[in-house]
Hints:
Elements: E1 3-8, E2 11-13, E3 33-35, H1 37-53, E4 55-62, H2 68-85, E5 89-93, H3 103-116, E6 122-126, H4 137-145, E7 149-159, E8 162-168, E9 173-179, E10 182-186, H5 198-204, E11 209-212, H6 214-217, H7 247-260
Parallel strand pairs: 1-4, 1-6, 4-5, 5-11, 6-10, 7-10
Antiparallel strand pairs: 2-3, 7-8, 8-9
Helix pairs in contact: 2-5, 3-4
Amino acid sequence: xxxxxxxxxxxxxxxxxxxxxxxxxxxxxxxxxxxxxxxxxxxxxxxxxxxxxxxxxxxxxxxxxxxxxxxxxxxxxxxxxxxxxxxxxxxxxxxxxxxxxxxxxxxxxxxxxxxxxxxxxxxxxxxxxxxxxxxxxxxxxxxxxxxxxxxxxxxxxxxxxxxxxxxxxxxxxxxxxxxxxxxxxxxxxxxxxxxxxxxxxxxxxxxxxxxxxxxxxxxxxxxxxxxxxxxxxxxxxxxxxxxxxxxxxxxxxxxxxxxxxxxxxx
Length: 266
């Protein structure tokens, strides 16, 4: 049975390009946007299901970092990457009320977008974004749409209208079955995302990418989270210098220092 699959993709702040001032404040406006690594796993899982069952893969996204007028192009580039990986079309919500990201408002926007597009058999998301790591959006979208949610899936199988997933619960694995439609968040263990070829990247620019406002979706943003500040955790080294007449003496002093710090126990 062909599957109509939606993938929730976020244009996240790239932690590999972290910018912070002397006071520890993160300079979010200076950090580029990139697709979350877990979202790449979600896109890959969706494309693999399409290759096995047929159907289409649609990318849904909401821009949560501003200023939107400048960031929109970056967000579109992120979605073009998903299209190059094999998704068929992309839809992006851009609105001042979405910035900075609030999982509740983002979920409302994505759920409304899904409904506007007619709904889907399966919704896939990464287990978390690589910037805020809230792990909330997938579950919130499921709640709004009134469909089952399966979190932290490391394998997926679809047979007819039944989805079978193996969940990673850290200490054990759990296998569950749900009826479609459903929302599933996937872990990094589920697959290895493909790297698009140059031809696939060029073809991605011919695929549909549509942009909406919250007004287009009939959504009124009611923010519950207000971000006052984002800071990095500053770690200061003690710079302890251990000296001795011999290596044995230095080793003894090092062991004593580690014991006093609670690093090792005897």
